[in-house]
Design a protein that fits this description.
The protein has 136 residues and is mainly alpha-helical. The chain contains 5 helices and 2 strands; from the N terminus they run ααααββα. It is globular, with a radius of gyration of 15 Å.
Amino acid sequence: MMKRFLIYGMLGWSMEVLWTGFLSALAGDWRLTSTTYLWMFPIYGLAVLLEPLHHNIRSLPWWLRGCIWVAAIWLIEAGSGFVIKTITGKIPWDYTGQSPWQIAGLIRLDMAPLWFIVGFLFERLHDFLVHKVALQ
């Protein structure tokens, strides 16, 4: 479990760096500036706790699984953001003012399509880690 926690944490960080670099390119910043937070490593690592959810929803239609992933990711994002804000007084990724679709600075509803896709990437990665790499 600890190995998968570390893998999910590192891959999540990498995914975030690539995504924010891509967004900076779209904004005209050809330095491809990327950002992430140290807080994000354990948050991404906690994807290991989503593995039982993946087992339980395997037989559901793809569109329903995608919606479940969106809800689960929003729950994790909002919950971890709330905990960090309670501890430090700030949300590292505070979305306030960034989108009319943000809720309390914690989540953005307009990110649903991205989280929908990320959920399916997680399913593939989870299966690969468990079956091919045998990281039990």
